[in-house]
Design goal:
This protein is of the alpha+beta class. Helix content is about 20%, strand content about 50%.
Length: about 240
């Protein structure tokens, strides 16, 4: 029992000291207390590093995507609504202490904001180091396949399968949330941009509609491709797939 108590105390202390990074592209508002109505006392830029104090405030359901109806490749469908769910947390940052909405925080350092989508594999190396690579190549009379497994530090992995006319890549992030999956997909796959284009009827060759099959999954559908974000237990999995 004494050992369990010590372990719990250690876990709590470790969590309280956890370093996080701001992913909000336009910056993250700092408030004087842990609720959405508290006084605004500052803003943290994208990429700012903060330290959690371990104090939690209000839990807030933040509307993120609105539902809309669309003619999706000759079929009338509804793109689902989705709201981010997280707490206000107290953080320490250079220059002070305040409260921010945790849905836009991640332990992963975000990529620099660039025109277009940044390089996902370069970012994976920046947070997980140079990967060990395994190649599982196969060929038979019917088709040719290439399969790769990239293993990074801290349990991050990427598996890639490519064949004639199709491909799929899976990214695995241990101890990451659905909100972090949303942030990663938005940065690297332009999901918010293409969903907005569909809603505003300004779609070009690429746009998405959203399916929310559960409170731990988001699926962005295009005509012949999809971005699927799921949390299984404590593991975040993002799958990018498509064909022609």
């Amino acid at each position: 029992m004494r050992f369990l108590l010590l372990a719990l105390l250690f876990t709590t202390t470790l969590h309280a000291q956890q370093t996080m990074h701001v992913w909000a592209k336009s910056g993250l508002t700092v408030r004087a207390a842990g609720d959405a109505e508290a006084e605004k006392i500052g803003k943290l830029n994208h990429g700012t590093q903060v330290e959690l104090t371990g104090e939690y405030g209000e839990q807030l359901l933040l509307p993120t995507y609105a539902a809309f109806d669309i003619d999706f490749y000759d079929e009338a469908v509804t793109s689902d609504a989705w709201s981010m769910l997280d707490h206000y947390v107290e953080v320490k940052y250079e220059g002070g202490t305040g409260w921010v909405y945790a849905g836009f925080l991640s332990r992963f350092d975000p990529p620099s904001i660039v025109n277009g989508e940044p390089d996902l594999f370069a970012w994976l190396e920046s947070i997980g180091g140079r990967p060990d690579t395994s190649n599982f190549e196969s060929r038979d009379q019917a088709y040719y396949q290439e399969r790769y497994l990239y293993s990074y530090r801290d349990g991050l992995t990427c598996t890639m399968e490519q064949g004639e006319g199709y491909g799929a890549t899976s990214y695995v992030f241990p101890f990451a949330s659905l909100n972090e999956g949303f942030l990663i997909a938005d940065q690297f796959f332009g999901t918010t941009k293409y969903l907005r284009e569909a809603r505003e009827d300004e779609s070009g060759e690429t746009f998405y509609i959203l399916e929310v099959p559960s409170n731990q999954a988001l699926i962005f559908h295009a005509e012949m491709s999809a971005i699927e974000i799921r949390v299984v237990g404590t593991t975040l999995i993002i799958v990018s797939s498509g064909g022609c």
